[in-house]
Amino acid sequence: MPSDFFISDHHFGHKLIIDFESRPFADADEMTDVMIQKWNAAVGSEDKVFHLGDFSFLNQERTQEIVRKLNGYKFLVLGNHDRGRSRSWWLDAGFDEVSEYPVLYKDFFLLSHEPVYMNKHMPYVNVHGHIHGQKYEGKNYFNVCVEHWDYIPLTFEQIRDAVVVSEEQA
Fold first, then answer.
1. Domain ranges in the chain?
2. What torsion do the CA atoms of 73, 78, 81, 87 make, to the nearest 10 degrees?
3. Which of 87, 102, 108, 123 sits at 20 to 30 Å (Cα–Cα) from 166?
4. 4-169 is classed CATH 3.60.21.10
């Protein structure tokens, strides 16, 4: 049975992110190769991946090459570095679906690039990226930036189970 996966902030082609976020790569090419391998080791061809933004800094041809190599049905929620390009640009780059806005998943998980304000009375969990190695405190936030998860997309079950454990500890 296919699974749903979540990840954000690959920054393909962004060599400066290696230093900004202390990524363990010699250069952008090694970073691209390793991140594609880790994605494909977790994600099968029938799976769906929600990428929560800041996918690529490369031109459309190079971005298409990467998207083509990645397993699964790919849904992009645009990040701050993606929004300079149109929704159709990203569809032409190979994404199956693209949203300019946050998406509600399973009526409970708000998928966005940047963390969305959630007060303590809101029942939702915000699955987000954008803040890389940082973490928001509280049971309402779940950061899927690549730096937190060894560049491996997370399954819905991994997120759900982490949120349930967090709830039980609260």
1. 4-169
2. 90
3. 102
4. yes
